């Protein structure tokens, strides 16, 4: 049975990449709903996004953070009665061809959530600094979340929202990725990691997290967890 799928993209000042990201999604996944949540961009990201047809564009007046933008998109997808939600980055790192294997595995295994892993798949142009930051986040996720993953901060994931409609992230900023681990554990979700391709460009690396930002994200997560 065919499933209704929504791809949710959090967008903040992504005018350089968003049009090509959306075009590639439309070419590979013409039947999926694509929901873009503009998180208070100060550039012309919205104008670039609207150049691609059949895009649902939502807007935050103020910048609230990636976690908040993704949750806005997920809530909107629920109102559209979709079965699965894909969370997808706006900077061109993800590959739309990875969606189909995730969907097939979700259907065959009846999973609640499938998480993408760049360390199980193919990674292009990863810097050593990025590698160490990601490995640190894996250790952090296991220490505080209690689940050992190979890639705990990958934005590519597939959520079975029809099976688990109460899925909700409350961490507004980048710490939402760690919160997902908490959600999996607290709700005893049936989960799996699968390989996905991550391609780093000069643009995406410039927008990525430094080790100092990563430490800040970890502190945000701990503060939010304590509240």
Account of the protein in words:
41% of the residues lie in helices and 19% in strands. By secondary structure, the chain is α/β, with parallel strands linked by helices. The protein has a seven-stranded mixed sheet, with helices on both faces. A two-stranded parallel sheet has the order 6-9. Strand 2, helix 2 (45-49) and strand 3 form a beta-alpha-beta unit. The longest helix is centred in the middle third of the chain and has 18 residues, at 128-145. The chain is globular. It starts with a strand and ends with a helix.
SSE arrangement:
Elements: E1 5-11, H1 18-28, E2 33-39, H2 45-49, E3 55-60, H3 66-79, E4 84-88, H4 99-109, E5 113-117, E6 123-124, H5 128-145, E7 157-160, H6 176-186, E8 191-195, E9 198-199, H7 202-207, H8 211-226
Give structural attributes.
227 residues, seven-stranded mixed sheet, 8 helices, 9 strands
Short description:
The protein has 227 residues and is of the alpha/beta class.
Q: Would you list the SSEs in sequence order as H and E?
A: EHEHEHEHEEHEHEEHH
Largest sheet at a glance? 7 strands, mixed
Percent of residues in helices comes to: 40-55%
Q: Could you name the CATH homologous superfamily?
A: Spore Coat Polysaccharide Biosynthesis Protein SpsA, Chain A
Question: Could you give the count of β-strands?
Answer: 9
């Amino acid at each position: 049975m065919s499933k209704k799928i929504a791809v949710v993209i959090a967008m903040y000042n992504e005018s350089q990449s968003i049009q090509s990201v959306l075009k590639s999604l439309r070419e590979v996944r013409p039947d999926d709903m694509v929901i873009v949540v503009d998180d208070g961009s100060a550039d012309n990201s919205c104008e670039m996004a609207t150049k691609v047809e059949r895009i649902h564009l939502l807007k935050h007046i103020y910048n609230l953070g990636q976690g908040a933008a993704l949750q806005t998109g997920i809530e909107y997808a629920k109102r559209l009665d979709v079965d699965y939600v894909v969370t997808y980055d706006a900077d061109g790192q993800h590959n739309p061809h990875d969606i189909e294997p995730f969907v097939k595995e979700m259907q065959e295994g009846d999973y609640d959530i499938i998480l993408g892993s760049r360390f199980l798949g193919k990674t292009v142009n990863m810097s050593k600094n990025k590698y160490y930051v990601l490995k640190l986040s894996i250790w952090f996720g296991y220490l505080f979340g209690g689940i050992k993953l190979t890639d705990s901060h990958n934005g590519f994931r597939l959520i079975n929202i029809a099976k688990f409609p109460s899925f909700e992230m409350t961490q507004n900023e980048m710490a939402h990725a760690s919160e997902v681990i908490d959600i999996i554990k607290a709700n005893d979700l049936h989960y799996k990691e699968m390989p996905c391709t991550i391609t780093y460009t000069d643009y995406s690396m410039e927008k990525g997290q430094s080790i100092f930002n990563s430490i800040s994200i970890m502190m945000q997560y701990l503060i939010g967890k304590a509240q």
